[in-house]
Design a protein that fits this description.
Radius of gyration: 18 Å
Strand order of the largest sheet: 6-7-8-3-9-10
InterPro entries: AAA+_ATPase (IPR003593), ABC_transporter-like_ATP-bd (IPR003439), ABC_transporter-like_CS (IPR017871), P-loop_NTPase (IPR027417)
Strand content: 25-35%
Distance between the termini: 38 Å
GO molecular function, one term: ATP hydrolysis activity
CATH architecture of the largest domain: 3-Layer(aba) Sandwich
CATH superfamily of the largest domain: P-loop containing nucleotide triphosphate hydrolases
CATH topology of the largest domain: Rossmann fold
CATH class of the largest domain: Alpha Beta
Protein name: Phospholipid/cholesterol/gamma-HCH transport system ATP-binding protein
Order of helices and strands: EEEHEEHEHHHEHEHEEHH
Keywords: ATP-binding, Nucleotide-binding, Transport
Structural class: alpha/beta
Number of domains: 2
Length: 246
């Protein structure tokens, strides 16, 4: 099976409720390795919950969540740890350690989770920082970085372990349009140069239209549209059409 035919993440009839509120209602979709999926929808429609289910930080009430050919639902912690090594996560606020330099933030997971030597770690950190345009900033602390630089740094840390699948929560939030476009470009390079699968929660329709191979629109817990940007823009569902055409 070629890389383009390999399913990276698949939801099969996933249900998730919090008390009486059903956040995901019988949701099924899949995204292939090397493709980008953007999750759109109004606040509280289950987008961030979808990311947490992929990371197995939550479990669905029913259904299956497949990550790179493993169903993570009901999986024990030891096996989950192995699966999670295939995942990178770009947090909304970058989630860097304030007391560590940018270099140290990236070196930490490499020293803890791999057997790389210090020289190898140095090489990887420098390469990844250079890839995101921060090659000269490794000695800086997060407090010295602008919002756009912090987002780049968060992306660098998410990529330092070379994940097969990158999850991104609002990667362009709080950024001006030019900086947001630069983040979009970096995400697209992850996909094209490394074959990374991207699953991006976003309210940035402009960015979604640029980056996404597939768009999923969630509304009131239901997956109301799924397909290419063009397909979703012609959806019979009014919410989906309005969201993608904003």
């Amino acid at each position: 099976m070629s890389q383009s035919q390999t399913i990276a993440v698949e939801f099969k009839r996933v249900m998730k409720s919090f008390g009486p509120k059903r956040v995901l209602n019988d949701v099924s979709f899949h995204i292939d390795q090397g493709q980008a999926l953007c999750l759109l929808g109004r606040s509280g429609t289950g987008k961030s919950v979808t990311l947490k289910l992929i990371m197995a930080l939550m479990r669905p009430d029913s259904g299956e969540v497949w990550v790179d050919q493993d169903n993570v639902v009901g999986m024990g912690e030891k096996r989950l740890s192995r699966v999670r090594k295939k995942l990178g996560y770009l947090f909304q606020d970058a989630a860097l350690f304030d007391s560590l330099t940018l270099y140290e933030n990236l070196a930490l997971p490499l020293s803890r989770l791999t057997r790389k030597s210090k020289d190898e770690i140095d090489d990887v950190v420098h390469r990844v920082l250079t890839d995101v345009g921060l090659g000269a900033d490794g000695a800086k602390y997060p407090s010295a970085l602008s919002g756009g630089m912090k987002k780049r740094a968060g992306l660098a840390r998410a990529l330092v372990l070379e994940p097969k699948i990158l999850l991104a929560d609002e990667p362009s939030s709080g950024l001006d349009r030019i900086t947001a476009s630069e983040i979009d470009e970096l995400l697209m390079r992850c996909k094209t140069e490394h074959g990374t699968a991207l699953i991006i929660v976003t309210h940035d329709v402009h960015g979604a239209r640029r980056v996404a191979d597939r768009v999923a629109v969630l509304d009131k817990g239901n997956l109301v549209a799924f397909g290419s940007v063009d397909e979703v823009s012609q959806s019979e569902n009014e919410v989906a059409r309005k969201l993608i055409m904003e």
